Amino acid sequence: MASDKSDLLQGTLDMLVLKIVALEPVHGYGIAQRIQQISRDVLQVQQGSLYPALHRLEKRGWLKADWRESETGREAKFYSLTRVGRKQLEAETENWDRLAGAVALIMKTAE
Amino acid sequence: MFEFLRRYRRERQLEAEIQFHLDRMAQEHVGRGIAPQEARRRARIEFGGIEQIKEECRDVRGLRWLRDAIGDLRYTLRTLRKSPGFAAAALLCLALGIGANTAVFSLLDAALLRALPVNDPQRLALIQSASEGEAIDAFSYPQYTYLREHARTMDVIAYGSIALNLSSGAWAVAPAGKLVSDNYFRVLGVRPAVGRMLAAGDENVAVIGHAFWESRFGGDPAIVGRAANLNGVAFTIVGVTPERFFGAEVGTAPDVYIPLIMFDRLQQGAPRLPMINSFWLSLMARLHTGATLQRASAEAEVLYQEAASGSTRDLPADHPLVQYFRRMQVSLAAGDKGVGDVRAQFGKPLTVLMAVVALVLSIACANLAGLLLARATARQREIAVRLALGAGRGRLVRQLLTESMALALAGGALGLLVASWSAAALVKFLDRTTLDVALDLRAIAFAFGASVVTGLLFGAAPALKAARQSVGASLKGGPARGSRGRVFELRYLLVSGQVALSLTLVVGAGLFLRTLANLKDIDTGFHADRVLIASFNPGLSRYSEQRARDFYAGLMERVAALPGVETVSMADQPLLAGAMYEGVVVEGETGAETGGKTAGATTAGATGATGSVAAIKAVTPRFFETMGIPLRLGRDFSSQDLPGAPKVAIVNERFVRQFFGGRNPIGKHVGVGGKTADLEVAGVIGDTKYRNLRGAPPATVYLPIDQLDLKGRPGSMPRTLHVRTSADLESMATLIEQQARALDRNLPITTVSAFAKIIDAQLVRERLIATLSGFFGAVAMLLACFGLYGVMAYSVQRRTGEIGIRIALGAAGGTVTRMVMRDSLAMVLAGVAAGVPMALWLSKLVKSLLFGVEPGDASVLAAATLLLVAVAALAAYLPARRAARIEPTVALRYE
């Protein structure tokens, strides 16, 4: 079950993470929080998917990480977008728009 | 190490990152009014499997293989520690196997493969000459200068050997001297360790070799500028060659380098530098950038013939020298590895040895593969469990390969120790301590490569087999239990293969041992076990003929008075250590004056002798007695055979047969060298070996040393003292040295040793191969039998139940023993069947190294086979006996 979900989310999760990080540098907990808040609790990110995704994106060079003081005063790992990451985000947004449009079209036409 | 630190830091960061997340979640709960402890618990639950997430993050980082490898290694160490016996046996096998291979390799490398330690050796070339296919490779000084001045594609250098006496006033030695052209060091690109090298315009200066500097001068840097007396000429030492430099001849180490143009001032007699027909120099060249070997070769050939026609312009076309030059062909060959008789002498034996040790290593590999297969079978259940739990088969193969690789690399590291020790021992054995066999990067790389290949060879089969096994069957008990099913086939094959290989090695060892024995037992014609020799060359120290004679007479008198001395005599050179042949004329026997062949091509143009040839040796009275050569007819030389007295000669039986048709020659006349038969034959002695042990005794003429015609080279009187003694040879050698020094402190003794050493030196190659192939043959046989024992012992253990049932059903102990022995012998005989043709084929390849025994010698083959089968039977008998003693009740409960 759980693995089905994460597989499904895989591509989308990467895009969502990039989008959130694009706004401002943020730590892992913050990313999870924002996704939940902005989607009005529709999307809940599993930590089990989030952290591997973050490390994967960092390894690919789309994200970079540094340690800074968080809002609570504690040191935390903040992720920010690299230039390659920004390009990737643009590409994925465009792709998503096309896909979402296409899906919506089918759903409407089929009614 | 760096990688490890980075990994550690990442690990800590991952930890901190996740901890931060957990703490924030917990805070959230606390904010909603939940107790901190409960809040932390809930956070942890919501977060999910922390370790799992960490693991996935690490996987993303791509460090998994490294972690796996470290884990595998740890696991390997743990399992090996659990079976120390296996680990020790494996390591010992590998250390010896890889060590022997590395040692032989480093020797082979030093002698045959490695480039000269000079600047850019790839552009060096050897200048070779050959007459009708026979290599001469020697040039005269005028030929060299012509070539050097006119060559456009290369820089040409020349070098030659010279006998030297070096005296410093306090002591005198006979160093190995090298005459080199003034561009020698510059063209080779050699930088001095101390001082400077030779340069153009140098005359009375010398450069000394590094080893000689250390042994003789204690490595004193103040050597530069020191005076040295060489052959009576004053020289100044200006520098020391670098440590690894040994000239261009592999296996030699010149002690003193002096300018080529000094040659005539250092030797007596007619000047040889201007002689166009005195061929004594070796030439090398460094090709200019852009020049190819072919172009330079063509140029050298043209220049050689130009120089030849220039220097023989006044000679008739049928003059021997003109003919000699015309027949000569000059060419260039790659010179990056230098030259050397070490290659001719040891090239083939070392290659054979390399093959031998490689075979031994593959037998050891087969053994280890067998052992690992046994372990893999024993671990079937464990592996099945791991497969069932989802371990990847690839992962499992990797784990098992890690084990064999770890063993191989550890064995290789130990092997390096074995190698450094045994390479030094080998070099000592060869009496070639000048060969540089210090373990360098190449040897280490070789050992590493050998270890990896070894690890793969013996690890692959067990690993693959383990990974292929089926989960269900193994968990249920496995098919191997209680039968000799397919599982064992590979192991049986391995044992047969080992037997085949070791049979080959044992046959080889037998052939080489037989060769050595044949040469040792050969009838030399003399008996010199108790003879000591000491050589002198007073001519080099500019002694007059009279002074030299006085020295020799005084020395013989003093030595004869020493206790334990039986007879004392002298010869110009000892038998088997220097040969001279001359054309012979015989009174009234002109018919014999046909055929024959001259030896000693150095002055071929000058002698050009036709007619029959005999070996010559000049000796004092009692030489035959000293050497134990029987006098057949007539008399020995006497103290009356002096320059004024009638000239006499003593000939051997072969000479009588060849030149006198077997008739009594006493009183007849023969002549050597010249045209007239002016020597009266005074006696006949038994035949002896002359030049080497392998050749048949030639017709030989002995001359009284005092009647020797010195042909314008007065004083040039190298002689060797022969002393037959009943005393201890070593203490006698010391005594003789003392007497010589007491008589004349400035005259060095060239050599002092037991005569047997000359024979040893002739047999060093044979002894090397015989000893080492014998040793490795035995090792191979033991390894193969160990392998057989292992397989059978294991098989008996596995079949305990089956054998128990057989015995319970009434099988006698003997039947069971026979059953096990039959299985063992089947493997052994299969190995023999494969090994015999292989041994026959391989032994043909070493035919040139054998003496007195044919490659396919039936007795050697039969003896080797019998020996191997007997030892194998012994190895198989132990498990067979154990099988026969199985108690059925115990056996049936064994499961």
Topology diagram in text:
The complex is a heterodimer of chains A (111) and B (895).
Chain A: H1 2-23, E1 26-27, H2 28-38, H3 47-60, E2 63-69, E3 75-81, H4 83-109
Antiparallel strand pairs in A: 1-3, 2-3
Helix pairs in contact in A: 1-3, 1-4
Chain B: H1 2-31, H2 36-47, H3 50-61, H4 64-82, H5 84-113, E1 124-131, E2 134-135, H6 141-150, E3 154-163, E4 166-167, E5 172-173, E6 176-180, H7 184-188, E7 194-195, E8 205-208, H8 210-217, E9 227-230, E10 233-240, E11 256-259, H9 263-266, E12 282-287, H10 293-311, H11 320-327, E13 328-334, H12 341-378, H13 380-388, H14 393-430, H15 441-468, H16 471-476, H17 489-520, E14 531-536, H18 545-560, E15 565-571, E16 581-586, H19 604-607, E17 613-619, H20 623-627, E18 631-634, E19 648-652, H21 653-660, E20 669-672, E21 679-685, E22 700-704, E23 719-725, H22 729-743, E24 749-754, H23 756-798, H24 800-808, H25 813-845, H26 858-884, H27 888-894
Parallel strand pairs in B: 6-11, 8-10, 17-22, 19-21
Antiparallel strand pairs in B: 1-2, 1-12, 1-13, 3-6, 3-12, 4-5, 4-9, 7-10, 8-11, 9-10, 14-23, 14-24, 15-23, 16-17, 16-20, 18-21, 19-22, 20-21
Helix pairs in contact in B: 1-2, 4-14, 5-12, 5-14, 5-15, 6-10, 12-15, 12-17, 12-23, 14-15, 17-23, 17-25, 17-26, 18-22, 23-26, 24-27, 25-26
